[in-house]
Amino acid sequence: MAAKSAAIRKSSHGSENFIQKLVKNPKISFAIALLIADSILVALIIAYVPYTKIDWDAYMSQVTGFLEGERDYSNLKGDTGPLVYPAGFLYIYSAIQYVTGGQVYPAQILFGFLYMLDLAIVVFIYLKTDVVPWWALSLLSLSKRVHSIFVLRLFNDCFATTLLHAALVSIICQKWHLGLVIFSGAVSIKMNVLLYAPPLLLLMVKAMDIVGVISALVGAALVQILIGLPFILSHPASYLSNAFNLGRVFIHFWSVNFKFVPEDIFVSKAFALSLLVAHLSLLLVFAHCRWCRHEGGLFAVVRSKIIQLKLRVSQRNPSSTKKVLQADHIVTTMFVGNFIGIICARSLHYQFYSWYFYCLPYLLWKTPFPTLLRLFLFAAVEFCWNVFPSNTYSSLVLLSVHLIVLGGLWISSPEYPYVEKTTDKSISKKKAR
């Protein structure tokens, strides 16, 4: 009886502590309310807003061919053309077809749960970093286009994005190998996730020794091999050329970001090459001057790792060297790296908005801009993504806003990358300067 009373008191005390945390931290209370409100909104959208088929029939046709035993990727086709996604896509949508019978309405309900799961993961990331004020979390639920992408279009981008955010949570929690496995799973659904690969690799080099980096990369590679194994064993050339085709030329009409560029220039190799050079140059500049600023630059980081490797090989320093990175630094580096890729992408289609929408409030609050300007830029991006079809002016505005945000990120004060052993916040602030 006494034990039972003690358990009840302990449970009551735990409940009181939880309530006290909610009262003291309005961000947590607001986040819970936000998730509840958005779940109601998603249910209303599914119930009352008409669904528009775009890629669903193509997805189901490609999955049907796979389930019937076809392993040649060039023969897996739908009404939108041949299959161009890695094999993880097939497994995911095969499971969806099995659960839903290929029917749209139950699939919408499933994607509604997926949307809420993704939103909950993103909110967790925002709470861990504490960059955005509590009321600005509402921006994560204010996109008409993103709701449409998830529950009215059922695009595979939704699964890739959710897995990417889950991988980011693992990395924030210092579970690097698990994060790389989840990250590789996201890539197996859609290759746009590779936009996060350069900043992720840099973070791995900063946080782990060379053995840890190599083992994590090997784990990620094994995931790709295992997922693609049925196709690699039967028709390897067809699988690799179709699932990992980096040279695809998108249709000019559907471009949201470069509609102002004449079509003959848009499809040219020179335009693609110039964007690639811009992409790599921006990544290099941000890595050297921003992400590795406190270590003395990108080349200083690389040089230190080479020295550590030499010492390890000579067995004079066999112990591993690991550093704990700040959650803020991890998320900033990943989000900015992806955002640079978005700016330099030759063509952004409407579903691609999900690739970076959830980064926007975070990135805007990392800039030194006043709050009203941040809200204006957020609204401008959302407006451009809801102009259909896109036109010269909407694409110019979108690119201009992107560049303004990138400029704000460049002039902002970089955060100190490493977790301090001391609790003296003044030291961290001093180092951040």
Question: Could you walk me through the main structural features you see in this protein, from its secondary elements to its overall organization?
Answer:
The chain is mostly helical. The protein has 19 helices and two strands. The chain has a two-stranded antiparallel ribbon. Strand 1 and strand 2 (81-82) form a beta hairpin. The protein is globular and about 55 Å long. It starts with a helix and ends with a helix. The model is unreliable at 422-433 (pLDDT under 50). Pathway: Protein modification; protein glycosylation. One of its GO terms (cellular component) is endoplasmic reticulum membrane.
Topology:
Layout: H1 2-24, H2 26-48, H3 56-67, E1 77-78, E2 81-82, H4 87-100, H5 104-129, H6 144-151, H7 157-172, H8 176-187, H9 197-207, H10 210-234, H11 236-243, H12 263-266, H13 269-291, H14 298-313, H15 327-343, H16 360-366, H17 371-385, H18 392-411, H19 425-432
Antiparallel strand pairs: 1-2
Q: What is the C-alpha radius of gyration, as a whole number of Å?
A: 23 Å
What is the ordering of alpha helices and beta strands?
HHHEEHHHHHHHHHHHHHHHH
Gross geometry = globular
Tell me the span between the first and last alpha carbons.
Answer: 59 Å
The unreliable regions are 422-433
